[in-house]
Amino acid sequence: MVNAQDPPTPTPSVPHYRTLWLVLFAGWLFAYADRAITGPVVTWMIDNDVDFLQAAENPHALGGLIGSLFFAGYMLTQLPSGHLGDRYGHAAVLTVSFVWAGVATIVSGIFAGLFTFVALRVITGLGEGAFYSNDRSLVVTHTPEHKRSLGLGVAITGLAFGLTVANIAAPPLLNLGEDVLGRNDAWKLPFLVFGGLTLILSGFMWRFMRRLVQRPLRLRAPFGRLAAMAVVFCALIMALFWASDRLGIPEWLAAVAQIVLALAIVAVMQRRRGVQMASALRDRDTMLIYIAAISILWSIWLFGYWSVAIVSSAADSSLVEAGLTAAFNAGAGIIGFPVGGWLSDVAQRRGLGRRNLLIGATIGQGVLVLLFGFYLQFVGEPSLWVMGALMFGTGLFLNAVQPMSQALTADLVRPENHGSAFGMWNLIAEIGAVASPVVSGALRDATGSWTTAIYLDAALVLGSAFLYLGVRRTGPLQADTSVPSMAAGKPA
Length: 492
Prior knowledge:
The chain is mainly alpha-helical.
């Protein structure tokens, strides 16, 4: 087991840790483009009355449910795949995840039909769910501790590029799709293009990971276990979708059921592995960080999934103009992720603490989201430029807090349990991603505007800042065999 505080010294045959950051950056770019393309495509489907969506009574709520079901799949494999990475190697599980994502995204663009489309998006999410916890663990393992948060921020900056690329590329790809595939099948082209690019990158990533770990990757065992889990989880998620689509269960209730399923997985893992991984699964301080992270993913996928619809509805603009304006929010991560990570490392070295900086950045994000809501509610004809500026500001703080929170999590957990801890972080946080698209879409259908959904996001963000105040430790527990009433470590 490699100690995260003493990464291997690069040699001519072992890639430098900065090269690892860049490879994972590319992975985040395509992984997020693959999933973010769904939002603009679904918006286009609604506007163009695509066959399998045109009969929906509440199209935005249904579109949000499609996004939520993807994230249900993504969420459910977070914790189990982190444990697989701790057992079989994070590089191996990450490689399996990326090949899976490329194949599943391509197949999403081949078959039509509502049930089939949703099932393929769920399958894509189930595979991509293994990326996050193993990516974070690789960065922490192979990066010097004093650059840990910066590395986490640089790698995940690819997320912002992926969201930006998806928002900008979707409209022209859909227009091209109309010329190449016809109007009713134009939505397929974005999935075919991005899935193909992801599959090409997965080949390069496989070769790189072999050099990184200096041994052949054990892919069969983690793939088999991940596939077995995916079969069960996909069946459960699609049963929820069938119940919502055929039996008339409200979309928001289906999202609640997905969250209950995720919490059941947490309970099982805590019962089976909690004693060995106390600081990752049972500790009060890390649990507060996990719960607070729900607001991070809620914000990302309110704007990441619906930003084009928010802008086009408020300003009565074209899809291309709305996509370019919405890209300001996603593009803010290009600055926010690495700067947030760098500031977190500086605060840690100077004794200011990551937690305090995280609280300040979270409050800044919440205030800017409130201002965005006020602007949409009280300005009769919103300006695309002003909306772009406000979305850039909210995105800047939103993306800065993510590496801060992740580095704080790594500080509190023993190295051998980093995969499980990051899996737990994202599993709990993904509750926000599951609920945000469908709840926000339902609020839009119920109220006729997006302001209520934006105010709800602001409330969740500001509430999460208070949760961070409860984090009192800055170091890992001395041993993961028990959880004392007052966790060991230095006071925050």
